[in-house]
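Database export, one record per block. Field names are fixed; values are copied verbatim from the stored entry.
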Amino acid sequence: EFWVNTPEDKADLEKLYVSQSLKEQYWKRTHGIIRTCLEKSLIALQNIGVNPEMAHKEVGGINSSISIDGKTNHAMEQLEISWKFSSPLQAADSELIVREVIEDIFTSNGLEVTFKAKPIHGVAGSGGHTHVGASAKLKNGKIVNIFAPKDMKNDYLSELGYGALMGLLRNYEVLNPFVTSTNDGFNRLVPGFEAPVCTVTSLGHSYEIPSRNRSVLVGLIRDIKNPKTVRFELRSPNPLSNTYLVLAGCYQVMLDGIKASAQSKLSTKDLEKELSKGLGEEGFYLEKDRMYRDENDVFEHYTMEERNERFSVPPATVYENMQNLEKYKNKLDSLKQGNVFTDAIIESFKVGAIKKWKKEL
């Protein structure tokens, strides 16, 4: 997601807020130079092998106007471009390429682009929702999604899928510093703007109907007719998150949960029960004084105090987030497995993030 605007135009916050509240812009048809730039971006990305899937308007923005010479004036719109999945390393590379292509094309057509997480206070920020999944290639050459259950109509996930999701949620305190490491990133993570605050997931009210809960940290993506679609959507990253570290961290903490679920030898139903446990209930892997699944909109259904009690108190600043690397040292082992995240990497990232945070205060 990103914002584009006519250079030197100032945001009309009242119009932006009203438009967002009414969802006037979401998936609305683009016009003029905005549409031209989106089309050029898709063509350019296709030509270099990124394989874009779609480009569309997002919830933020206001209607532009046309000058007497036919040019677009007072453009201020939030847009989104998505592209096809690939390996973790290629996905991170592609994100850098996509940002450069978008900025080049829009700038060359007289528009400003920003990938900041919260460029305009009081209206929707820009997310970099990150989808993660895992597949295996069998000896016969068949590709199988290891997170998909044997029967899509009888389970949400496989044993490994439940383990991966639990690992992501249980260890999020030590993953979060690499996801949100700037003041700008934290400015986006506030209630009411479809940005996650609580460490919680939603699976759906039934196996047949997928979850549409946009208030959770991790969403489950699945098409009951296509097991290969099963994956998780981490909704906290923003366009300027370091995707190399985000993806590496995701797979590390998911692996921790996968190992735990495999060693437990529990069935999918038992693992679903573990993930759905109530506050104060003991779990073999998940923490007692936490809840990890909720099908409600957590911002509309609970007060801040209730959210904090159920899902723990989230960090409010870069400093608090980085301190979790010290506070939850027992969970750092999940990142360090296989020497993927070394002490030097973790410490240097923390020092750099805190130094930048101090400079911005």
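Remark 1: The mean pLDDT is 91.
Remark 2: Residues 243-264 form the longest helix (22 residues).
End of record.
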